[in-house]
Amino acid sequence: xxxxxxxxxxxxxxxxxxxxxxxxxxxxxxxxxxxxxxxxxxxxxxxxxxxxxxxxxxxxxxxxxxxxxxxxxxxxxxxxxxxxxxxxxxxxxxxxxxxxxxxxxxxxxxxxxxxxxxxxxxxxxxxxxxxxxxxxxxxxxxxxxxxxxxxxxxxxxxxxxxxxxxxxxxxxxxxxxxxxxxxxxxxxxxxxxxxxxxxxxxxxxxxxxxxxxxxxxxxxxxxxxxxxxxxxxxxxxxxxxxxxxxxxxxxxxxxxxxxxxxxxxxxxxxxxxxxxxxxxxxxxxxxxxxxxxxxxxxxxxxxxxxxxxxxxxxxxxxxxxxxxx
Length: 325
What we know:
Blueprint: E1 7-8, E2 14-17, E3 20-23, H1 24-46, H2 53-76, H3 79-82, H4 101-119, H5 123-141, H6 143-148, E4 162-164, E5 174-176, H7 179-201, H8 207-226, E6 233-234, E7 237-238, H9 239-261, H10 273-324
Parallel strand pairs: 1-4
Antiparallel strand pairs: 2-3, 4-5, 6-7
Helix pairs in contact: 1-2, 1-5, 2-4, 5-7, 5-8, 7-8, 8-9
């Protein structure tokens, strides 16, 4: 039965500009990176950091994150690349899809740590600033799965069902839950939650980032349960469900422990910014103070000299008047 309302899938996921392929999946990731850096930069400046610092550190974090995401996918779905009849070279074809968020966050954090260490910046403060931006980057990136007609859910006849038309790689054309859309919307909600909570409770020392991780894991767990693509299962649950559950507990534990040990926010997140401003104002105040001292020092002395001269003149005038009389 033909559906009256549904989400159509793109007829193709790549366009060619001459010999240059323009892939929808890659564009979604690139847009997500720009959104994350833009929002992270605004939040970093608002907390007292320099403009451009987030982008400088992202130069380290993004490549590490892409490598980590691909490694996680290839390791957990190794049979897609290393089983009989498969070509292992496909493991390097990132544009065909397959980036595991768990590996991307893990190795991306390593890259961010390297960048932060080079700048003398605490990694938790940087993570707090970029957390909602990462969630929005994921929201953008999930639309890459739409272009590739992948990672959809169970068959359904809801008005927002996703119409899959491709039959490659074992796909069966039909109408399915658009789990890419569910996760995209969930990530937008996570970003809003982190921004609100960070403003309301002044979260610091990595707790805003931990909130993002915990909230994302909650949504990922139920969305993962809906998916029908091949995955490894343990005790009836998909591997990513177990990963989401474990990471959720670790994130919540971090928030609780961190709030007790290091309440509040970092006073200084980037060396030289706050201190430099204080020194500059202090220097100006000192100069003004020195000027006041010099004026005060000169004024009394000058006043004494003037009073002394006036007194001597009056005495001389009186003496001359006495002689004349």
